[in-house]
Amino acid sequence: MKNKMILWTAGMISLVVVLMIIIVSLEPPKEGITRSQAFKAAALLTASRAECEAHQKAAGRSHFSAKEQGNWFVKYMDYLYDEDYLTEELTPANLTTAQGLLTYREASYLAARAGSSFKARVGANKHNQDSPYPEEDWWALYEAMAKELDPEGKITDVTAVLYGTPSNLEQAASWTAYTTEGDYGFEGLALDAYMDCEIRFLAREGEMIAMRELVSEDVTYPNVWLTDGSEGHFKVYLGTLSREFTVNGKMGKAEDLENNLVDLVLSRGRLVKIVLKKDRINGKVLSVTQDAIEIEGYGRLELAPNFNVYKLYGDFKTLSLKDILVGYNLQEFVAADGKLCAALVERQFDAKTIRVLLMNTGFKSLFHPSVELTVHGSAVLEYDVGEGKTESEELADGALLQIQPGDKRLANGRLEIRPAGDEGITINSIERAQGNPTYSGSLEIRQEADGLVLVNDLYLEDYLTKVVPSEMPSSYEKEALKAQAVCARTYAYRQIQGNAYSQFGAHVDDSTNYQVYNNKETDEKTTAAVKETYGKMLFYEDKAVEAFYFSTSCGHTTDGSVWGSEGAKLPYLQAVELRDRRKTQDLTDNAAFDAFIRNPDVPSYDSSFPMYRWETNVSSDLLSGKIGGVGTVQNLTVTKRGPGGIAQELLVEGSGGNTTIKTQGSIRSTLGDPGLSIAKKDGSVMEGSDLLPSAFISIEKRSSDDGTISFHIYGGGFGHGAGMSQNGAQGMAREGKDYREILDFFYKGTELREQ
User: Of the residues 231, 255, 277, which one is the last residue of a structural domain?
Assistant: First the structure.
């Protein structure tokens, strides 16, 4: 009996074991992840795609054979090999390995490099080490490692609708996925099954790491432009690209749908509904913010969540909010449910007017605590009373107005004063070099949290008549003044398009931040210079140039690199010697530049002007107080010079360490101080300022008998040194050069055109 029980028990155990084997064998194995996908994700834990590419280029070699180096995953795996997250012994560098599944052993090795706690999490052992590591386990491990290796949160969790890849968009870039949250690289990922679906994915700096979840197959593309309908197909613009959708007759007539703003409703990739939006409004744009646009006659209107801007004239193009110019009526707006859904830009920009923010006395702030003004000639004061209605007041000649914050006329936005004639408006609460300035055009006053904001809306040519005398002495030669007028007009044109002050409904302010405006009275000679160059601007190819100018050269200008990497892309801004023949000296060597700048007799178009050469002395004590982390400043050395010899890097050596100051602006700020005495070429002396006059400098260390250290600076010129030297233009005009020759000298390869 006992033996039977033993046999029965043994039989039951065997049966259980057999059943467990059968169950395990029938259970589908957990899916693994390819090594290429896992290693791409691992590399992006600590570096971007661009950084991996740069690493690969800098290394100049690869762990893969030459025929395999064109594969997308090579840069990521090379990065991991070089950073010791992979070894060729464990993971050979070849295509077959990359396409195979990640093993427990490999996951364990990589995790150990990330941190000892991560290795234990993998759970590798002698039984499973060569088995595929489950994909979901990998992503759980990955998210844990990201918390440790990506403390700045560069890896993001993104939810968006996928609307395009190279498989359905001819104009798509290689390995680029187009989504409602922006464009992403997706190397190694299969996305076509998720087209027109809302998905959740991990990404780092524009590169998808992994598709993590299908969120919804029901999506809506709001506020898209539908056009070019034929044979049941319509072209639709999504983001910056176009797609075609099949539309059946039940959704509407082709003639009603074409060239309209619509919402497209899709389910499982099929278009099921079109919502047409036809309500249009238009008017001059008064201000633009991220969430609203103020339109004359309508007030401030909120933007719908998916507000779009479409250029309809010429070649169709999707624009951005910054392309809606304040002060102009270039577009129709499509509205629905009380919000703006889109702007349809219908005509080309033609710069006729400009809107200027008027700063307070001393150009210290955009905000005024109160405003006092006098109207010359009759005028109308108009203000918004809500619900699209306005009220107006007649103002007589000589009327004195005082506007305080809280004025009831400001309750619904801005008030506007429009003079009937050309007599203008004097603002008594602002002081300029000419006294209380008088402004032509209209004046708008708006209340902000920090005070009142004043905007002067006027004709561009009228604006220039008050810029030119403020920027260049009216006593200068007429051809120099005409060159200045063209530069000022071109600069203003670029600034109108720049829309920097769109939140206040302005293009520029009236300070040196842009162009000084109405600081000095108009002059017959400067006004004539503006009139004789009416509408003329400088263009390079088909774009208005960045017409930078400055006061005085040191005998040589610099190029666009003075403005950083973007400035370096301005081919018309070149370093040039200011002599009869347009050429460039190599002054990038310290010895060559020192000899040049310490010679006050180097011939130049600017050489007769006092700021052509100057000197000053800066104490070590002053610099030690301004430059942190170096202790007592013991030496200054220019270690890098740009074209024309301008200082671009300054090595500061101190008792407590060294530091390097980069860019001409930072160098001028570091060495500048209001307490400096600056001796000019003609022997006169001027006070210093927060900025050194220029960065065209040579530095000589001096030590007194008591051990006190100072630095004597030999300098030349006044200003940033790029573009037109105003005094150089005057020197050229004195020698008989006309304004066209002057402009061609300073802005190489440009064309003078009338707009």
Answer: 277
Task: Please list the alpha-helical segments (H only) found in 403-475.
Answer: 460-471
Instruction: Render pLDDT for 305-334 as a digit per residue (tens, 0 to 9).
Output: 999 999 999 989 999 999 999 999 999 999
* Mean pLDDT for the stretch of residues 172-198: 95
Q: Are the C-beta atoms of residues 585 and 696 closer than 8 Å to each other?
A: no
Q: How many domains does the chain have?
A: 6
Query: What are the tokens at 439?
Result: 């402004």
Return the pLDDT at 503: 93
Q: To which residue do tokens 């959740």 refer?
A: 200
156 close to 202: Cβ distance less than 8 angstroms: yes
Domain assignment present for 10: no
Half-sphere exposure of 650 (CA within 13 A, CB side): 26
CA atoms within 13 A on the CB side of 406: 1
Whether residues 161 and 138 share a domain: the answer is no
507 lies in the same domain as 363: yes
| Cα distance from N-terminal residue to C-terminal residue, the chain | 114
Give the Cα separation of 60 and 75 in Å (integer): 12
Share of the chain above pLDDT 90, in %: 81
Q: Output b/e per residue, 635-659; b: 16+ Cβ within 10 A.
A: ebebeebbbbbbbbbbebebeeeee
Closest CA to 182 of 118, 241, 236: 241
Q: Is 274 helix (H, G, I), strand (E, B) or coil?
A: strand
pTM of the model: 0.80
Enumerate the H helices of 458-601 as residue ranges: 460-471, 478-498, 524-532, 590-597
How many residues in the chain?
755
Cα(671)–Cα(606) distance, integer angstroms: 24
Helices and strands (H and E) in the chain: how many: 17, 41
* Alpha helices for 524-651 (secondary structure H): 524-532, 590-597, 620-626
Q: Which residues contact 191 (CB under 8 A, 6 or more apart)?
A: 162, 165, 177, 211
Cβ partners under 8 Å of residue 561, min gap 6: 567, 568, 642, 643, 648
18 inside domain: no
Residue 540 lies in a domain: no
What tokens appear for 167 in the block? 């498989």
Give the Cα separation of 437 and 244 in Å (integer).
Answer: 58
Q: Say if residue 141 is in the same domain as residue 63.
A: yes
Residues 645 and 566 in one domain: yes
- From the list 678, 574, 669, the residue with the least C-alpha distance to 623 is 669
Q: How far apart are CA 200 and CA 216, in angstroms?
A: 10
d(CA 602, CA 405): 57
Query: Is residue 584 domain-shared with residue 713, that is, in the same domain?
Result: yes
pLDDT digits (tens, 9 = 90+) for 336-374: 999 999 999 999 888 899 999 999 999 999 999 999 999
What are the residues facing 132 on neighbouring strands?
A: 103
Provide the domain limits for residue 209.
Answer: 155-216
| Angle CA 244–246–248, to nearest 5 | 150
Kindly report the CATH number assigned to the domain that includes residue 258: 2.40.50
Write out the DSSP string of 302-341.
EEEEEEEEEE-SSS-EEE-GGGS-TT---EEEEEETTEEE
143 phi/psi in degrees, rounded to 5: -65, -35
654 token code pair: 């101190």
> By the 8 A CB rule, do 43 and 49 touch?
no
